[in-house]
Amino acid sequence: MKISDSAKLAILHGLVDGDVAEFGISTGVSWEVLAATIAACETSKNTRGLPPKTLYGFDSFRGMPEAKLPEDTESPMVQRGIWRPGSCISPGKEAIRSIAIKYLPVERVQLYKGWFSETLYTTPPLLKFCCVHIDCDFYESTAQVLEYLFETDRLSDGCIVLFDDFLESRGSKKLGQRRAWIECVEKYAPDFTDLGYYGTASWRCIIHRD
Ligand SMILES: C[S@@+](CC[C@H](N)C(=O)[O-])C[C@H]1O[C@@H](n2cnc3c(N)ncnc32)[C@H](O)[C@@H]1O
User: Which domains does the chain have, with CATH numbers?
Assistant: First the structure.
């Protein structure tokens, strides 16, 4: 599973500073993988005394928002009604917390409930990430997450960034997560290594800061 490999690469092999985050949790399938991977890294005899990682999660817990921008409304996933308001609904914040605390102490599970536009900028000012899983499907949501991550300087050197839906809308450079990343690269010119495509429609990279 590439999500687990990526988190391990950052935590155990890269010794990358900062915590782990997921943007888009829904029923918590990948959330559980991330929680289990953090715990597995910590019980590994190769942990090398790293500070424990906290798992941060962000979701509306009301399902998908309405698609408003052409970069989303023109997606075949929206036009066919697969991504529609309220789809991907989550069982709720406490149910999602209970998944993660099977693996991690409760104080190391931080959940932010609400639309990204309301929650992202309420995180602690010095928060950094070593691995982020962006699984919120839409261009608009992904652009909000990327703007937050780059504007507020959240990504450590060596951070792995995973985009679950990068190629979802025919791989179009004008739609969805791929469009949001293209615009982020134009605006912030991050130094990164392409780690390639994984899963069905997903892509990941590693961020360099020096
Ligand atoms: C495809 S689902 C996530 C799937 C999940 N990672 C899993 O493995 O089951 C997308 C999630 O993104 C959330 N989402 C999308 N846009 C959002 C936004 N602007 N603010 C908050 N949550 C958002 C939705 O609520 C939904 O739970």
Answer: 2-208 (3.40.50.150)
Question: What are 145-196's pLDDT values in tens digits?
Answer: 999 999 999 999 999 999 999 999 999 999 999 999 999 999 999 999 999 9
Is the CB of 25 within 6 Å of ligand 1?
yes
Does the beta carbon of 23 lie inside 6 Å of ligand 1? no
Q: Name the residue with the closest Cα to ligand 1, atom 11.
A: 24
| Residues 58/120, Cβ–Cβ less than 8 Å | yes
pTM of the entire predicted model = 0.97
Give how far Cα 2 sits from Cα of 112, 170, 202, Å.
25, 21, 10
75-128 pLDDT per residue, tens: 999 999 999 999 999 999 999 999 999 999 999 999 999 999 999 999 999 999
Nearest C-alpha neighbor of 131 from the set 112, 111, 149, 113: 149
Q: For ligand 1, is residue 138 a contact (CB within 6 Å)?
A: yes
Q: In whole angstroms, give the CA distance from residue 161 to residue 28.
A: 18
For residue 94, report the distance from its CA to the centre of ligand 1, in Å: 16
- Give residues with Cβ within 8 angstroms of 45, minimum separation 6: none
